[in-house]
Amino acid sequence: MDESASIAEIGAEQAREAGGENAVSPARTGMILATVCLVQLMVVLDVSVVNVALPSIDRALGFSAGALSWVVNAYTLVFGGLLLLGGRVADLVGARRAVLTGLGLFALASVLGGFAQDPGQLIAARAGQGLAGAVLAPVSLVIIMVTFPEGPVRSRAIGVWAMVAASGSAVGVLLGGLLTDLLDWRWVLFVNVPIVAVAFALALRSVPGTRRTGGRRLDVVGSVLGTAAVALLVYAMVEAGERGWGSGVTVTALVLTVVCAVLFGAWEQWVAAEPLVRPGLVGVRTVWVATLVVAFIGAATIAGFYFASLFLQDVLGYSPLRAGVAFLPFCAGVVLGAFASGPLAARWGNRLVISGGLLLGAVGMLLFSRLQADSTFLSGFVLPSVVASAGIGACMVANTSMGISGVAHHESGMASGLINAARQCGGSIGLAALSTVAVSAAPHATAPNTAQALVHGYDRAFLVAGLCVLVAAAVAAIFVPSRSPGRPEPATGGDDALPGRP
After folding, report:
1. How many CA atoms lie within 13 A of 122 on its CB side?
2. Which UniProt keywords apply (predicted)?
């Protein structure tokens, strides 16, 4: 069975291999995987589903040019900043209760955002979605680790989960365009309610309860300090685009960023009884490489979706529906790259797949940097979309699998949370930084017309994004192990001792 095996096939094989008293029926196992994949799809697509709707949101609620990016960043900042804390919630309340609570909170925040009447209300609702996502994303992987036995079956289940994560952003842009044009921009938030209803029903029927570990404590202080450091850095970059790097507000935010980052490191190293990340975990080669790579990917892709959506609507004059359809080549490239990732990695190794995928992604971003005001969809958009998406899709799946392959089972969730947090925080910082680049470059465009000035700013942003992905490709080529490392044995009596876990 190859990487593209269906959920039902994976479930059947899991039942055959697991055996014993903890064996789960094929139908239930397939339903469990379908549940966690639906949850992961909703969490990931909500990063990008608002992108095509941004011009409509701006017209309806009245954002300033710099503040509009907070519709995206409010979600990614809270999501990324609290992912590690969210992973601990399952330890305290159990995976089943955590996923049901997270789904309920996501639905509530989506409804409130859909009814927002001003920018502040929408940004607050997006932050609430991010909080719910921070609980749902790590617990979905924990459920896979509990349900599927060690070996090829679990690897394929994680591959399906990672493929959904890789393709979710592209699906979000397409869905956002359809909803905004056919209904209203508010439906990019309301659409989560029926998704939650389906996922909630599936979770009630399929997700097993896991033993709660009452001794665990949430590292709230560490989580607040880490999130504050990233939020202040993003705020400083947004302000730099509007006020300049020498302004008092920008400098103060940068100083506070450093203070919070230093306090976070000191707290985690010497004070926290239950740190968000075990200090030694960051030193594991596969973990730190995967974390660094995915941070660059997040910076390039989240910002890329943002600027590509603005180009299609503000420059080419596309409707939201037409803009969403324009991302179909990107969606197809991500899916094809993700499907091909497993067989390619099995034959050529993670190093070649990850570094090669990143190189393709960088080429695609650099091709985007050649856009002009008179570029058409066929002449300027299709080729960069296909090249960038195929490379990023292949890289994301291989990078996720590589990142958790060298850690003990009881730390897989922690490693996954760290990698996911890096992607979201990297995306927030990247979007803020590249927005500043675009805003600063636009007034210096030689062309007098406004459209060309906008495109000049977008081109500079895509150029920097391409260079970021090139740096990630170099890191992967040098540091990704040529062979998959063996997984360390878990400590006896540790957190791995959960019902159903081998």
Report:
1. 27
2. Cell membrane, Membrane, Transmembrane, Transmembrane helix, Transport
